[in-house]
Amino acid sequence: MQIKDKRVIVTGAASDVGLAFSRELLRNGALMIVMIDIKQWIGEQAVESLNNEFGRKRTVFLCCDVTNNSEFDTKLKEAINILGGLDILINNAGVINEIDFSKAIDVNVTAVIRGTLLGIQQMRKDSGGKGGIIVNISSIAGLRAVSQLPVYSATKHAVVSFSRSFAQPYHYERTNVKVIVLCPDLIDIPEDISQNISNINSLQNDRHHRVESIAHGLIYVIRCAQNGSVWISEDGKPVFEVQLPDTLPQKTEVDAQN
After folding, report:
1. How many separate domains does the chain show?
2. Dist. CA 233–CA 191, nearest whole Å
3. Domain region containing 159
4. Which of 92, 120, 189, 242 could serve as a FRET partner for 164 with CA atoms 20 to 30 Å apart?
5. Which residues in 101-113 are b (16+ Cβ under 10 Å) and which e?
6. Is residue 107 part of a domain?
7. pTM metric for this prediction
8. Are 33 and 59 in contact (CB under 8 A)?
9. C-alpha distance from residue 246 to each of 161, 168, 227, 255 (Å)
10. Which keywords does this Swiss-Prot/TrEMBL entry list (predicted)?
């Protein structure tokens, strides 16, 4: 999909990767972006900065706690009304919280599911929509085991599986809404956890470059990725697609007598 003149919603958009997403989308011609985040003051400052850079009314900020289901539903619908429709949805809100695991599940899994379902409802062709794209932001931790972040890893695995399931022909042929997964490397790791990760320096070096690289990767994915595909953005390098199996591994016969 070309980005020019498209209407976009980005969650978790007030800072860091979400803000970089919003800026890069505007650079590439997005008509208007509604930025959703729980951090009101930071979000308002981000919108002011982007509007000064790209023109007034190109971005709007809505303060929202994505773990509050009714509030999230209301704000998404408000965002779509502001935009006059929806073409692209970026479910980016996420947290690392290994102590309060229910919080991590609410933000990283439940909000992504609710956002995806509402986005599909608004864009689906069999209900009068024109189709569109949803990019769900997972993590490289959603593709591999991370011993220091088991809850975070589990939630991001869930995003990958959910997104690939909704991208199957059973859904896509009726909705014309692509669902794609982008898996960035780790950007913000709590200090108490980062001390126990041996390669933390390589993970967090050159942070600004890596955030910008992830944003560039999002643009490429929107333009070029196939429905249901999974992409990795790692170490500040260009994104690349990862092939995941759609079938179970072949069963290995075991000799019970050995």
Report:
1. 1
2. 23
3. 7-242
4. 189
5. eeebbbbbbbbbb
6. yes
7. 0.91
8. yes
9. 11, 11, 14, 28
10. Oxidoreductase
